[in-house]
Amino acid sequence: MPDSPHSDRTPIRLTRRGRAVVVGFAATVTLVLLWLTVGPGAFAGSRDGRRAPSRPGRTVVVEPGDTLWGIASATDPGTDPRLVVQRIIDLNGLGGDPTVQPGQELRLPTG
Which of 11, 72, 74, 76 is least enclosed, having the fewest CB within 10 Å? Predict the structure, then answer.
């Protein structure tokens, strides 16, 4: 329309960088809105208390002559003792020195 008062305006053009900025801004806004709506509890392994109740952990008191290998073998006879030993070490924070002493109480893995 030649007589239109808006005919003098040129159309808006975006450069490559301008398009990238607009797309990046839209993606950021979308991600923030999703995070606010769904919340951080949607992430895998989140610890927000909505897990199934776990069984109470078993404990054992180390007797003279006991070893982690022997305790692991007695705890879960059908499983490779190396895996059970590693789980006991992880549960009890024995990473630096996995030596056990008589009278020490160890938490055992459940299930």
Answer: 11
pLDDT tens profile 5-17: 666 778 888 899 9
Report field, pTM of the whole predicted structure over 0.85: no
In whole angstroms, give the CA distance from residue 95 to residue 98: 6
Contact 84, 75 (CB under 8 A): yes
Return the structure tokens found at 32: 């923030």
User: Percentage of the chain surpassing pLDDT 90?
Assistant: 32
Token pair recorded at residue 87: 């789980």
At 78, list the tokens.
């059908």
- Structural tokens at position 15: 């450069």
Structure tokens at 20: 């990238």
